[in-house]
Design brief:
Number of domains: 2
Helix content: 40-55%
Oligomer: single chain
Number of strands: 8
């Protein structure tokens, strides 16, 4: 225990107890009945309250333990008992006038016995009520500490539970930053009206040249005389634009066969069929992986009847090397 701290905590209660002793002994010397009753009340009730308050204040304000609060009460009671005994001897001397050696001896003996009994009883009494006062002050502190501990425990569990989530989110964030963008699949589409099917289609990166193979199932022999690939979707495109193969590259197809209508190298089909934008120019972005959405116009003639038709298909694909 830190007795310096205990003495400092006891100082003001000791002063209050000494003042009570002076008041009570003054009332005794007056020989007035109601003053004697007042002195008894003071010496019984108020010291108990001072002990309890001293312990309460020591724990609440000075952060004492219950044991240190009890020691504070004991110290107060010891000093108070010694001071009370000295005052009692002085009063006895005043009353006897200091003339009777026998009387002085009796009073001294009584004072000594009172001192011994007072030290034992008052130390127990002061320590007990100081401890009670300290316990009263300690309970809110312990409740607050327990509450804070519970909150801390819950917070730790929440953080512990959130830690894997934070790690996973951090890992996914790093993946998002450092991994190359995902190449989402494009919905490939190459379709024609009934009787014609698209079996192979490809766009060359950079040049936007078309490779196209179709199947013919019209039930008649046809001769393909022209093909165009554009993003122009206007209804009068086929009447205002010239769609033609060179005569030497016209392709005749019997029903139930397939044929390449366009190839990059031009072998067995038309060469340099370029898929353009709606203005007839090369699309602005023809890099690998970029998509192209347009229309394919096929001009063909039925060999048996000589009837000329134009089939319009849709093309959605990506540029490839």
């Amino acid at each position: 225990m830190n007795w310096d701290k205990i003495f400092n905590a006891s100082l003001y209660p000791i002063i209050a107890m000494l003042l009570l002793q002076l008041v009570s002994f003054w009332s005794i010397t007056m020989d007035v009945q109601y003053l004697l009753l007042l002195a008894g009340l003071i010496l019984t009730i108020l010291p108990t309250l001072i002990y309890a308050y001293a312990g309460y204040s020591a724990v609440k304000d000075r952060k004492f333990t219950i044991q240190e609060a009890a020691a504070t009460g004991v110290l107060i009671s010891i000093i108070n008992t010694v001071a009370s005994t000295i005052l009692m001897l002085q009063i006895a001397t005043l009353r006897t006038g200091g003339s009777g050696a026998y009387e002085n001896t009796i009073f001294s003996a009584v004072a000594l016995v009172s001192l011994v009994i007072g030290l034992v009883f008052n130390s127990f009494w002061g320590g007990l009520f100081a401890a009670i006062g300290g316990a009263i002050a300690r309970k809110p502190i312990e409740d607050a500490q327990q509450k804070a501990k519970k909150i801390e425990t819950k917070t730790n569990w929440v953080l512990l539970a959130a830690l894997p989530v934070i790690i996973i989110l951090g890992f996914l964030f790093l993946l998002f930053l450092y991994l190359p963008p995902v190449d989402h699949p494009v919905s490939y589409q190459c379709t024609f009206p009934a009787g014609l099917t698209c079996t192979t289609s490809k766009l060359q990166t950079g040049s936007s040249k078309l490779t196209l193979q179709i199947g013919q199932g019209t039930g008649k022999t046809i001769r393909v005389t022209g093909i165009a690939c554009t993003q122009n979707s206007s209804g009068d495109y086929t009447t205002n634009a010239y769609i033609n193969y060179a005569p030497a590259t016209n392709i005749t197809m019997e029903s139930g066969t397939t044929a390449f209508l366009a190839k990059i190298d031009g072998s067995g089909a038309a060469a340099s069929i370029i898929c353009t934008d709606e203005s007839g120019n090369l699309p602005p972005n023809t890099a690998i992986g970029n998509s192209y959405n347009g229309r394919v116009y096929i001009n063909f003639t039925e060999v048996e009847t000589g009837i000329t038709r134009i089939a319009v298909g849709t093309l959605s694909t990506k540029y490839e090397a």
